Amino acid sequence: MSADLAQIRAVQAVGLTTSAFLGGAILAVSYAAIPPLYSAPSPLSAKQWRILYLKGVAVAPPFAALTSITFGYLSYTFKQTSRPNAEFYGLAAASVIGIIPYTLIFMKGVNDRLTARAAEAEMLDATDKVSQVGMPKEESTNELLDRWAFLNAIRCVFPLMATAFGMWATLA
Question: DSSP string spanning 40-56?
Answer without folding.
Answer: S-HHHHHHHHHHHHHHH
